[in-house]
Structure formats: structure tokens, C-alpha cells
Amino acid sequence: MENNNKVPNWYWVLAIFFLLWNMMGVFSFYIHTFISEETLAQLPDNQQALYTEYPMWVTIIFGIAVFFGLAGSIGLIFKKKWAKMAFIISILAIVPQMTHNVFFTKSIDIYGLLHTITMPILVVGFGIFLVWFSGFAIKKNWLT
Questions:
Q1: Residue 132 and residue 84: Cα distance in Å, rounded?
Q2: Phi, psi at 47, each rounded to 5°
């Protein structure tokens, strides 16, 4: 069955915005995970400690969060229903990752409360929105 529902222009604006957002997430993951010894050595001691104390399980779920977020955004661009499942997997990884970063590290002591919670609130908010938005697009028959 052909999908005759025309996707509004604002859908494409959001899809492209979130594609770029999730590409930045992948870039952040790459920078965090593969930081060079030279770059790490240039950071203050407390920030170096934060990097070196980051558990492997958090790095793994960070990767799951950003790569499934990127996959979901690609799904939105190609108007695929599976985008919603990718976003669900992403948010299921985002929540424990951000919880760890805010509550189980010394980030607040190092960067301050506002700096430490701004990005997690934004990331969780966008993640929840993307699950909702992809479901909305499915109900509108914009995704196949």
C-alpha cells in the first residue's frame, strides 16, 4: 500500500536537526572514548581522574545510546517505522548513563551543578521526545 500522506516541512526540519544532534553525540562518544594520552595529560588533575574512573559499562551504554540515536535519526530521514525502536533502545541506554554521570561521579564538584545537569536534561528530554515523535509519525502514516 502506498503512503499518500504528505510529510510536512517541519517534519524534515526536525529530522535533520536530530540527525545532526545525534551525529554530535557520536562525535562526543568518539572524543570521550578515544581521548589521547597527550590530550588527557593537558586536563586538570580532577578532570583526568573523572576520565580514568569512567567504568566500561558506562562507555558501552554511551555507545549504545548514541549509535541507536543516530540509527533512529537515519530512520526518520528514510521514513522507517523501526526508527521508534532505535529511539527506545537509545533512551534505555541514556537514562542509566546520565544517572551515573550526574549522581555517581564527582562531576558536580568539578564542573558545578548547572554545567553538570544541563546536558543530561537536554539529552534525556530529546530522547523522550524522539520516542514520542517517531510514534506520532507512525500514527500519521509518515513512516513505513
A1: 8
A2: -75, -35
- φ, ψ of residue 35 to 5 degrees: the values are -60, 135
| Closest to 20 (Cα-Cα) out of 63, 77, 64 | 77
Helix (H/G/I), strand (E/B), else coil: 36: coil
| pTM, full prediction | 0.91
Q: Please give the Cα distance from 84 to 116 (Å, whole number).
A: 28
Q: How far is CA 94 from the centre of its chain?
A: 7
Tens of pLDDT, residues 53-83:
889 999 999 999 999 999 999 999 999 999 9
Residue ranges covered by each domain of the chain: 9-139
